[in-house]
Amino acid sequence: MANRTGNYCAFYVKTPFKESNLGANAAKDFVYYNMLRAWKGKDSSFPFVDSHDKNYNVRDNSDWETTLKPRLRDRLSKSKNIILFLSSETVSSRALREEIDYGINTKGLPVIVIYPEYSEKSDIINCEAKTIKQKIKNLWDNLPIFRDSMDKVPTLHIPLDKTLIEKALKNTDFMVATKGDAGGSHYPCKK
Description:
Oligomer: single chain
Strand order of the largest sheet: 1-2-3-6-7
Strand content: 15-25%
Order of helices and strands: EHHHEHEHEEHHEHE
Number of helices: 8
Largest sheet: 5 strands, parallel
Distance between the termini: 37 Å
């Protein structure tokens, strides 16, 4: 069995994607992924272990079937969960569909969904009804494979907030070896 200690970050980027300064700045979700890496670089105790560092990088012009897809699957196999950045700009690309489908439906990885366009719990949940807001549910339509599969694994919905992200990354209910019950959840509005 693979060493399943990593956090696999899934996010949309237009392809072909070049990790140059201009390319990275043009891909908002890539910037959020880099933010997690920067938090870890600044504070080694930040509980993010980058699954993308678990095998060598590939070039955008690499073959999908022989190089890219196997590399994604290898990284997912070495992961304890998926961190999905889901926004109004998310598009159901081939790579993102593969990551979510294989990660959830084959590997059973719990998902921590970060909504980078929102910074407060009350932005994503109705605090009185304790339910996820419709505007958030509408974002799920941007990635149908996630929308249709997320109830098969524990799924946590949170805004872009460092404290909540850290709490989620430490939460054993959202790690494959110790995962809790399948279905969606969120942290209550009150801290």
